[in-house]
Amino acid sequence: MKLLYTINSPYARKVRIVAAEKHIDIVLLEVVLGAPDCIVNQYNPLGKVPVLVLDDDESLYDSRVIVEYLDNRTPLAHLIPQDLGSKIKVRRWEALADGVCDATVATVNEKRKSPEVQSATFITKQLDKVMHGLQALNNDLGKSKWCVNDTFSLADVAVGCMLGYVNLRIGDLVNVAIDYPNLERLHVALLKRKSFKDSLPVP
Ligand SMILES: N[C@@H](CCC(=O)N[C@@H](CS)C(=O)NCC(=O)O)C(=O)O
Fold first, then answer.
1. Closest ligand 1 atom to the C-alpha of 49?
2. Does residue 65 sit in the same domain as residue 93?
3. CA distances from 155 to 42, 87, 96, 149 (A)
C-alpha cells in the first residue's frame, strides 16, 4: 500500500498516525500538488491528498474512508469503537476537527491572494468557524483525558492533527494554549506519542 501525501496536510497526518498506531506498514510517497503531472490526479479525481493506493492499484480517499479501512485491516488497537453509539461519537469529533481544518485551509488560501482581491468578510467568516469549532471541542473535552469514553481513539488523533495545523498556519491569529486550555492539555499529551512526534508539521 502506498500513501500519497503532503508533509503538512492534517488529513494525511491523521492517516499516517492511524497507520503508525496500528503498526500497519505503508509506503509514503510525498507529492507536489499542482504539479502538472502530479500522480494524485491519476488516483483521485478531486486531486486531493491523502490517497491510499492499494496493492491492486485501486485507490481510496478521502481521509475518513482511509482511516476506517486501516482500522479494520487489523483487530489490533481499534481506534474506531465497534459499538455504534461510541463510533458515532468518535466520528462526530473527527467531523468537527476536520471542519476546523477546512476553515483554516480556506482562511490561508484567501490570505494568500493579493490584497486587492482578498475578502475580509470571507476571512472573518472562516475564522469564526475555526473559533466556534475550537470552543465546542474545548467545552466537550472538559477535564477528560481523552475525547470519548476516556480511551485514546480516532477522535484524539483528528483533534491533535487539527491543533498542529491551526498552530502552524494561523498561530498568529488563534492562541490555542491560552484560549482553549483543555485542548492544549490534550495536545501536550498527544505530542508524547511516537506517532505524533514522527509526523510533526514542518514550518
Ligand atoms: N476531506 C478531505 C480533505 C482533503 C484536502 O482538502 N486535502 C488538501 C491538502 S491539506 C488538498 O489536497 N488540497 C488540494 C486541492 O484542494 O486541490 C480529506 O479528509 O481527505
1. 12
2. no
3. 30, 10, 10, 11
